[in-house]
Amino acid sequence: MAAFRKRSDDRSSETDGVFNDSDGTWLATSAAGFAAITLQLAKSRAYICCDPVMRLSFAACCALTAAAFASPSYADVRSDAKAQVDFGINVAQRGLWREAIYRWEKAVQIDPTYAAALNDLAVAYEHEGQLAKAREAYEKALALDPNNAQIKQNYDLFKEINDRASVKKETP
User: Which of 5, 24, 141, 170 could form a disulfide with 115 if both were Cys (CB 3.0 to 4.6 A apart)?
Assistant: First the structure.
């Protein structure tokens, strides 16, 4: 939580955050509260001068800070994607491959840097006969995590099987 000193003559609304009378600070309880408090601070001459350029700079800085507080963290994004991956594994084990594909596509949409989700998606595409999509997913997964032994093994096996099958089709 962000804390700011409040002047004794400041008549700001206390609904934007929590005002602590014991030490005279405002505590922002959310990104919206933080933005509202910083707006009140910008209006107060105790915190910023009357220069319009300074006010604009201060407001821009506050807006960027509030946006940083409001955006989801990387850990939240990864945990949301992992929940989709885990659900996909669960349904794939029951033979529901289309549902698994949906979940793994959703995981990749949530976190495009999640190589394990792309690997699982590639396996599912391969199982369902969507070989071009499987190759693309494997290649993306390897680009993201080139040292992952499981992804390498899956992709090598995929290439070996599909290259052999394509050679058989070409020979009369």
Answer: 141
**How confident is the model over 106-161, as pLDDT tens digits?**
999 999 999 999 999 999 999 999 999 999 999 999 999 999 999 999 999 999 99
Whether residues 81 and 135 share a domain: the answer is yes
State if pTM tops 0.85. no
CB 134 within 8 A of CB 122: yes
The beta-carbon contacts of 8-11 under 8 Å, at least 24 apart in sequence, are 10/40, 10/44, 10/46
Domain boundary among 54, 70, 86: 70
Give the DSSP letter string of 102-122: HHHHHHHHH-TT-HHHHHHHH
Q: Within 10 A of 62 (CB to CB), how many other CB atoms are there? A: 17
